[in-house]
Amino acid sequence: MRNRLKKELGLFDVFAISTGAMFSSGFFLLPGIASHYTGASVFLAYMLAGVLILPSMFSIAEISTALPRSGGAYFFLDRSLGPLMGTIGGLGTYFALMLKTAFAIIGIGAYAAIFWEVPTKTVAIVATFFFMALNLVGAKKTSAFQKVFVTFLLVILVAFIVDGIYSIYFGDSISKEALDMQFTPFLSDGLEGLFTSAGFVFVSYLGLTQIVSVAEEIKNPEKNIPLGMVLSLIVTGLIYGLGVYIMVAVIEPEVFAKEMAPAAVAASQMFNWLPDNAGVLLMSVAALAAFASTGNAGLLSASRYPFAMGRDKLLPAILSRIGGKGTPLVAIFFTTAFIILFILLLSEEGIVKLASTFQLLIFMFINFSVIVFRKSKIESYDPGYLSPLYPFMQIVGIVVSFILIIYLGWMPILFTAGIVVMGLLWYYFHARGKVKREGAIFHWFALLGKYQYDELENELMTILKEKGLRQGDPFDETVIKSKISMLKAPADIDKVLDKVSDYFRTELQRSKKVIKDKFMQSLLDDSVIILPGVLIFHAKYKNVLKPSMQIIVSKSAISGEIPFKNKEEISPIHICCFLINTDEKPKQQLRMLSRLVDILEREDVVKKLLTMNSHREIKEYLLQNENFVSVKLLKGTSQGAMIGQQLMEVQLPKDVLVALIERHNKTFTPNGSTVLQEDDILTILGETKSISKLFKGYIGSETEKW
């Protein structure tokens, strides 16, 4: 589709975007300001904030593995609580991200001014245009730049911590008495001050959730999103806690409270093994790298919000336009303009409070969204990661966010209320008439007999199909062991259902009539999936040990009275697929079904299947992946050495399996004692690397492709 983004980002990309978005103002600017609220215990405030964000992180990880789409919090709220909340959440998170990004880019100008006499905001604007150019060439190249930033930054920060711990506890520059003085008073304003400070520095961890705004571009999101977020939080939390502890230990409290570059000041008293001022230079360069990584990742993430909202008609559709490099061109320009405006008009502490307050409100809604999705009972809501301790984790997240908002004061609360009002007005006067959907919350209400939006289930099913199978889903095994019936004589639907029910009755331990009646009922209640020339029946039964499939391929169109609701729209049926699974694994059944649909809705699928003359060809077509190869045993070729051997004697890689053998136009599943014969066609399944090696060794050189 034209408005789908490329999946280019792996685990390290996830880690780099998330981590790089956190190490800027949180480490290089905010510690001194945050100490105003709690004194020397400010390092605990950072660690407390890292713990308090856990419920929201778990909730975001769950929803983003179920709905890997650009737009992050906006998309989650829209599909769970409806487009009104999506509008409010999308606009609010968008502005919070842009504010944080603008603040970070201003930091580039501020630190550059230490070395050169240059206007801070001019440097910041030039940097913004540079990041815009990076984002225009694609998320992969943006992330490659990000990985360089983050790697360099982590090396310097780890060196800072190691040198700081050594200087404090093993050097002779700080005595125990002096160290005690540095941490007195410890909690200058009690627990209230600690929580206020934690709320203030909460913005330092917002990069942890920025990654979900590019979830649509992440490969294997069910693994890479939660793992990348957890790794990022662990690394960032440790560096924040230890790094700020070192700053408190080596900087005079009065100086620390006023210092806008505490990391550089701390470095000036460390790194004694380096030339004079080398420590300051090193930390200043690290700060520039940190601000650059946050500005880069911030622009990348923020631009996906108007893109996603434009795609859903909540903002003008032009914002969803994709450029030639596969990036949201107009959304990037739009976001760049706003960031430059903020750079020109705004400044420091208030921005941090505003961004933190609205983000905390969004976290409340996201935690509630997990409860809504689970209560909605939508089968196609299939997250690859489930939040632990549900629903207590989500309830704690809601309560914690509410408490931190209160501690941050009235000014940011009023700003948040202003964004909410703006979102309401925009929705009712611009978007309401253009959007014809509701969120999962109406499916929850439907349990009480109220309205629900059925198209949401279709959208989630589409997302499920795009995500593909999960590791461990036995789709390939089910295809290999499936029963294929190729009908040359004309047949009606009653005969087809009769034949299939007879096949399944032994496996399901049910009468043929009961099975046939269930298939017929699925036609009547419209649960059969209808594709051009294809019917896909699916059912779940108790006590089914493993999935089972039967496929009917009829040379003539299947006749008889098929009870469709819209008969005039149905093309002649030639293919009938039947997929049976246990009722204990409904999500697995949906994933396998979506994979089958994805294969059978491709262009000319019926024409291709009807030209196939063997069960092996049909099964290989349904496998449709890079994990198998077909090899024909011919004398005089490298694989000819297999002829006359038992299968157990053949030297093949350990991670491959000969799944099928076609012999004299008949297909069967072999065992270890099967003796291989000339002209046998072997279907070999296994890991991609091993299959590729076999392909090059057998097919790529001496034999024809099969």
TrEMBL record:
Keywords for this protein: Membrane, Transmembrane, Transmembrane helix, Transport
Localization per record: Membrane
Membrane topology: Multi-pass membrane protein
Residues passing through the membrane, by range: 12-34, 40-61, 94-116, 122-139, 148-169, 194-215, 227-251, 280-305, 326-345, 351-373, 385-407, 413-429
Tagged with keyword Transmembrane: yes
Domain RCK C-terminal: 616-700
Location of the PTS EIIA type-2 domain: 477-625
Highest taxon listed in the record's lineage: Bacteria
Cross-referenced InterPro entries: AA-permease/SLC12A_dom (IPR004841), Amino_acid_permease_CS (IPR004840), APC_superfamily (IPR050367), PTrfase/Anion_transptr (IPR016152), PTS_EIIA_type-2_dom (IPR002178), RCK_C (IPR006037), RCK_C_sf (IPR036721)
Name of the protein described by the UniProt record: Amino acid permease
Organism: Snuella lapsa
